Amino acid sequence: MLPALAGYDQLGLYVVVATMTELIAWPVQAWADAHTGVWRDRHVDGRLWPAPVLAAVTGYAVLAATTTAVGVWLLLVPVFGAAYQPARSLVVPLAAAAAMYAISRAAIALNTAAGRPRVAVAADVAAMVTAVGLYAVWIPEHGAIGAAWGSLIGYGSAAALALAATTSSPRLYPAQRSVRRR
Fold first, then answer.
1. pTM (2 d.p.)
2. Which of 26, 36, 88, 133 would you label with 151, given CA atoms 20 to 30 Å apart?
3. Mean pLDDT by groups of 10 residues along the chain of 182 residues
């Protein structure tokens, strides 16, 4: 949508920053994918506790987004040239968007492990609808920065929905067992 609504120069600014900041979410996505089976087994055994997982992912996401944002902001102009000075305004919203995406991936994996795959669909569809709606409104007037903020709000909505489903579902927390296992 960006080149059609704001031009290829805006797309170039966005792509450079988005490519660097999206690396924030990759480790979480891989880790969540690798642990979904383990989390499923823990859910079945009544031992799945999402809070430590979500705390660790949130801590990582904040730290990774902060350090990545600082690094990208500092290196953007020296590496890509003065023409990319306007792209610095995209760094913070796109780093935060990647952090929100990472958190949503972990929360969605926990819900999937607990037998709630519809949460993934609902969160991702809500994020897409939100982001596309904001892109249509903000890109024509604000260009790449409108796309960056649309991404942040879209991924933020996915994270909020997935977290709400994770924390509100008693099915995700271990059941109190009155019968001992032998």
1. 0.90
2. 36
3. 91 96 97 96 91 97 98 97 97 98 97 90 95 97 97 97 83 47 45
